[in-house]
Design a protein that fits this description.
Number of helices: 11
Helix content: over 70%
Strand content: under 5%
Order of helices and strands: HHHHHHHHHHH
Shape: globular
Largest sheet: none
Structural class: mainly alpha
Length: about 250
């Protein structure tokens, strides 16, 4: 049985799923973080997160198939322990967290980091790998709360100075890992249920079209412009999260 949402709610959901698919395809990855806040305009954030997770897993299959072998395996493995830590903390704190507070902190960090990346002098060497664990832990936590793992992941990976394709592929595989980790806790907490699963199934074609369009778009954007788009996406996502938190 499908959820009894209004027409406006379904339109926002369809657009959000398409936007996430484009992001999964590798075009301006941070834009996918807008999905839950956009859907939360019409439905509760918890419903939005539960409806989106099965679709994220479907998109991960499409995206990982397209990018597999181009990722930096060492970077992915550096993230895995922190992802488990972040998801575990999110699971244990579920129900006692202020979603608005998490959005505000994440939004401010995203805006500050995006501004820093635009204005900073050219670094002589990449950021240390010691930052992988804290970045991954925050990524796992924010991904669990609102599928908003992109900002903390970008904060670590962008200063690592990976090539564009390696960056996209590494993000893609890492997202697939954290979404897989989240599935069990989401089912246990009731965020993914039969009603949300039917809605997710209905939206699979939208997800597939979004991923294909994202793959097409990113292959036509040069590396320098791509990174500027990612930074712009982080800035816009940050502003959106701050607005959602304080309104």
């Amino acid at each position: 049985m499908l959820p009894d949402y209004s027409l406006i709610a379904w339109l926002l959901i369809v657009f959000s799923v398409y936007l996430t698919g484009v992001s999964k395809g590798g075009f301006a990855g941070g834009f996918g973080t807008l999905s839950v806040p956009l859907m939360a305009v019409a439905i509760s954030p918890t419903q939005a997160a539960g409806l989106l997770l099965p679709l994220l897993l479907v998109m991960d299959v499409f995206a990982v198939k397209a990018w597999w072998g181009k990722h930096d395996r060492a970077e992915v493995w550096r993230f895995v322990p922190g992802l488990f830590i972040g998801v575990t903390v999110g699971t244990l704190l579920f129900g006692s967290l202020s979603e608005q507070g998490v959005r505000l902190v994440l939004g401010v960090l995203s805006v500050v980091f995006a501004a820093y990346m635009l204005l900073k002098p050219v670094a002589k060497k990449p950021i240390s790998t010691y930052w992988a664990l804290p970045a991954a832990s925050v990524c796992g936590f924010t991904s669990f709360i609102a599928h908003a793992g992109a900002p903390p992941m970008n904060m670590y990976l962008m200063p690592r100075k990976l090539a564009k394709e390696t960056f996209i592929a590494t993000c893609t595989v890492t997202y697939a890992v954290v979404n897989t980790i989240k599935l069990g806790p989401y089912m246990w907490l009731g965020e993914v249920n039969m009603t949300s699963a039917w809605a997710s199934l209905l939206l699979v074609p939208v997800a597939w079209i979004g991923v294909r369009n994202g793959l097409w778009l990113q292959s036509r954007v040069n590396e320098k412009l791509f990174y500027r788009l990612v930074i712009l996406a982080m800035f816009l996502v940050g502003l959106n999260l701050v607005w959602q938190a304080v309104r």
